[in-house]
Design goal:
mainly beta; 258 residues; five-stranded mixed β-sheet; three-stranded antiparallel β-sheet; 1 helix
Length: 258
Amino acid sequence: PYKQFDLSAEEDSLHCIYSNSYDCPREQRRNHAISGPDPYSPWFNLGDDTGMDMVRLDEADWKNIDGIIYKYSFIDNDVVDGIEYTYSIVAYDMGVEPTYVTRYLPLEDGQFKTVIDTNFSNPNEWANPDGYASIENSKGTTILDRNFTIVYPGIQPQNNLNDVKVVPNPYFSRSKFKESEFERRIRFTNLPKKCRINIFTISGELIFQIDHENEFSGNAWWDMRTLNNQEVAPGLYLYHIENQTDSNEKIGKFAVIR
């Protein structure tokens, strides 16, 4: 997980195993905190006891739920424009711990005494004898879920065609903008809301046309394939952009290098 929001150590220990209430007898509480690597799946981190208060705001402009104002937010500041990013929000739990916990206490003669403690978080002896690892909700793990999203960071539409750029230029096969070995793309950025992009060879042959219309994004991508669905050859290319709002035009060039 890139970022986790967890119960605090106190909230963990007071958690009632039979309900969502924190007002319950000691024998029904978890009685210990849950954090760090999962003992059964150490590659999964159960959290850091950060507490949910870190994502709680007092501002009245956020939705009021049962008298408490919440905003759950995450800002990713380490992104590259035009690269695809996927974000998924899922809920997870600690799983089921063993009913009994074995401890070895050292004695004065160098021997050890075996002590078996009852684990209050598993009084009904679920999943005996060893319990099972943490579990994660499948909600949010596919693009069909609302809390699974794909974004392309970039710029808002611009009116001045002089600001239009081709990224990267020149395009190298080892570029980060190559999404996979089967799909390669370059990006036209700082575009107006509605425009048409024509791409030509240096001899003037039209090889592709892009109709861009997006009031929120000034980006358009070309998969570097021709009108005949052929991969473009290395070389110098010309592009012509027409702003379909005010009829302004721009001509530029870019290179493809293998």
